[in-house]
Write a structure and sequence with these properties.
Strand 14, helix 7 and strand 15 form a beta-alpha-beta unit. The protein is built from ten helices and 16 strands. The termini are far apart. The chain folds into three domains: about 100 residues, DNA Primase, Chain A, CATH 3.90.580; about 100 residues, DNA primase DNAg catalytic core, N-terminal domain (Alpha-Beta Complex), CATH 3.90.980.10; about 120 residues, 3-Layer(aba) Sandwich (Dna Topoisomerase Vi A Subunit, Chain: A, domain 2). The protein binds zinc ion (ZN). Zinc ion binds next to loops.
């Protein structure tokens, strides 16, 4: 019966934006119900996946869930009647065929809220020092709405959570919000703008037990997730999160596929130790080719390297990763 769904999905696919097959039994495209992200035209959060003998549509943006048959009725009415007819002939719909149970897939719809009551860098004037700093680092313009400008860091941080006993010697910083998958603020990092700052990054967690992971609200956990070392580096690699502390248990997220992308520093004991640990845990890691000199994703992107493609072609696991690692650190 699966065959019929596939046939009709194929017929309907012409009207679905950014339609593609992810793996056997899973397709993704822009959600035709909510229109998906307005800002990120490449985001596809509508999914069709097989459940037992049936297929189900679900959008991870608006949360709508439909049986495949209702999905066709809504989005491809020109082929729907024919589909029903064929299934009827096949005997898989009609009187005594039970309807698939969708309740297990229904979740609350998500609405993105602005989590930080500060000005995002995207709306600042180009001559503003914070925006200049970000653009100077090569951060893509369409990512600037994920960073905020804070004129008095300590003072503002204290309004979120009593953190600093004294607000003297305050400075201005870029705020990197750490959100949960639904976009609720869990904490934030303040990145110093001045090169003289004693602490370049200060991390404040509103809830100390929350995972110190940046980007949870931006990833699609149905596809491969990259775990990188710095929040700003993560802006250079699609579908990535960044560690903002060392004590995050990645396994607790139950992601189907993830890859560790550590900095390119073969002589750093700290990095090679982390790589060894990940490899021993059976995880996938990226081991950079020797001809790359840049130490992090940001520098690589600025050096004209196609970060995504280098990352994708240098993923290792298990014994192969061990060999590659010993080769890399020489
Ligand atoms: Zn939707």
């Amino acid at each position: 019966m699966s065959y019929l769904d596939t046939k009709y999905l194929n017929l309907a696919s012409a009207t679905l934006q950014k339609y593609k097959k992810l793996k056997p039994g899973v397709w993704t495209f822009r959600c035709p119900y909510c229109g998906d992200s307005k800002k990120h035209r490449n985001k596809t959060r509508g999914y069709i996946f097989s459940v037992k003998a049936d297929h189900v549509f679900k959008c991870h943006n608006c949360g709508i869930t439909r049986s495949f048959s209702n999905f066709l009725k809504d989005n491809a009415p020109h082929v729907y009647d024919e589909y029903v007819m064929e299934r009827y002939k096949e005997g898989t719909i009609g009187g005594n065929v039970p309807k698939p149970d969708l309740t297990q897939f229904v979740s609350k719809p998500k609405f993105k809220k602005r989590t930080v009551n500060l000005e995002p860098l995207s709306s600042l004037n180009k001559s503003h020092q914070a925006k200049k700093y970000a653009l100077g680092r090569g951060i893509p313009e369409d990512k600037l709405d994920r960073l905020y400008y804070c004129p008095e860091f300590k003072k503002w941080a204290n309004t979120q959570k009593k953190t600093f006993s004294s607000t003297s010697q305050d400075d201005d910083r870029i705020i990197i919000p750490i959100n949960d998958p639904d976009g609720n603020l869990l904490g934030f990092q303040g990145r110093a703008l001045s090169s003289k700052a004693k602490m370049r990054y200060i991390t404040v967690m509103l809830d100390e037990n929350a995972p110190k992971l940046y980007g949870l609200d931006e990833i699609n956990d149905q596809s491969t997730i990259y775990i990188v070392e710095g929040p700003l580096d993560s802006l250079f690699l699609d579908n990535s999160v960044a560690m903002c502390g060392s004590d995050v248990d990645i396994r607790s997220f139950n992601w189907s596929d993830y890859i560790w992308v550590y900095d390119n520093e073969p002589r750093s004991r700290q990095i090679t130790d982390k790589l060894s640990k990940s490899i021993d845990a059976g995880d996938k890691v990226v081991i950079w080719p020797k001809n790359i000199e840049q130490k992090d994703l940001n520098d690589m992107a600025n050096g004209g390297i196609n970060v995504k493609s280098v990352v994708q072609s240098n993923v290792y696991q298990g014994l192969q990763a061990k060999l590659q690692l010993s080769n890399w650190r020489i």
